[in-house]
Design brief:
single chain, alpha/beta, Rossmann fold, Methionyl-tRNA Fmet Formyltransferase, Chain A, domain 2, 2 domains, 7-stranded mixed sheet, 6-stranded antiparallel sheet, 25% helix, elongated
């Protein structure tokens, strides 16, 4: 069977790798265009492109799949199925209609919950204890196609988007291959999603990471985890950006939003210092001052003697 794969970030690499291990033929890989990244704004290729080139695969990077010539180029590849894992573009109906076995998408959430651009962060922000991966038969909507297979995965209190992403990527890769085999044998009946249970996530922005200390400590803690590695959770200290890379909620009376207090480290999961919030205290475990290396909070406080007793902006 001829497969066209579509994906861009690291999340898509395990799926492409697993497809190459099957008896099927990956005839082309579609990925996003190269873009400037980092402080130097050097042009970088998507991770899926780099992996595909290492394996001698044809790579295509159209800016849009809506142009007739791009639809025809895709049709000329004669794919039996299109497999998608974090491609980053909605597929128009003309593209969805090309493969006789449809377009199968790997989505890292338990659809219809957490549709959209940031499902892993969305699950952490919502306080979900379980997430997972869903394989859907794509339609023209946003992650709204019927479900083919779904598998759950627990979220631990220590999980961040950075730690969950590779776990769900591997789970999704295996689940897609399993789905593909069953789908081709007609062993799966597509199950329409329950629209009444649908929730949606948004594309994360840099501004989303700025901490509002008036929120409850539990909400800020979830943001610290959900926004790791991007956009990160940050506040400001002495006119510079201060990132909070690890934290824990402390069930104690808040001294007031933004107020910094000492904590008894032995009973607060390694947090030697905390910040008052709208409800409870957020214990700080690891911090990084702008332009400096990441430090344990205890070490950071030793170098910033005026930190405890001051206040952070809300």
């Amino acid at each position: 069977m001829r497969i066209v794969f579509m994906g861009s970030p690291d999340f898509g690499v395990p799926t492409l790798q697993r497809l190459l291990e099957t008896r099927h033929q990956v005839v082309a890989v579609y990925t996003q265009t190269d873009k400037p990244a980092g402080r130097g704004r050097d042009v970088e290729s998507p991770p899926v492109k780099a992996f595909a080139q290492e394996h001698g695969l044809q790579v295509l990077q159209p800016r849009s799949l809506r142009r007739p010539e791009e639809v025809e180029r895709l049709r000329s590849l004669s794919p039996d199925v299109i497999a998608v894992a974090a491609y980053g573009k909605l597929l128009p109906q003309d593209v969805l209609d090309i493969p006789p076995h449809g377009c199968l998408n790997v989505h890292p959430s338990l659809l219809p919950r957490h549709r959209g651009a940031s499902p892993i962060a969305g699950a952490i922000l919502a306080g979900d204890e379980v997430t997972g991966v869903t394989i859907i038969l794509m339609d023209a909507g946003m992650d709204s196609g019927p479900i083919l297979l779904q598998e759950t995965y627990p979220i631990s209190p220590d999980d961040t988007t950075a730690t969950l992403m590779p776990k769900l990527a591997e789970l999704g890769a295996d689940l897609l291959v399993e789905t593909l085999e069953k789908w081709l044998k007609r062993e799966i009946a597509p199950k329409p999603q329950d629209e009444s249970r649908a929730t949606f996530t948004q594309l994360l922005t840099k501004e989303a990471g700025e901490i509002d200390w008036r929120l409850p400590a539990v909400d800020i803690w979830r943001r610290v985890r959900a926004y790791q590695p991007w956009p990160g959770c940050y506040t400001r200290w002495q006119g510079r950006v201060l990132k909070i890379t690890a934290a824990t909620p402390v069930d104690s009376q808040s001294p007031g939003p933004g107020s910094i207090v000492s904590l008894v480290k032995a009973v607060n999961e390694g947090a030697a210092v905390g910040v008052g919030t709208g409800q409870g205290i957020l214990g700080l475990i690891r911090l990084q001052m702008e332009g400096k290396r990441e430090l344990p909070a205890e070490e950071f406080v030793r170098g910033q003697r005026g930190f405890v007793g001051s206040a952070l902006p809300s």
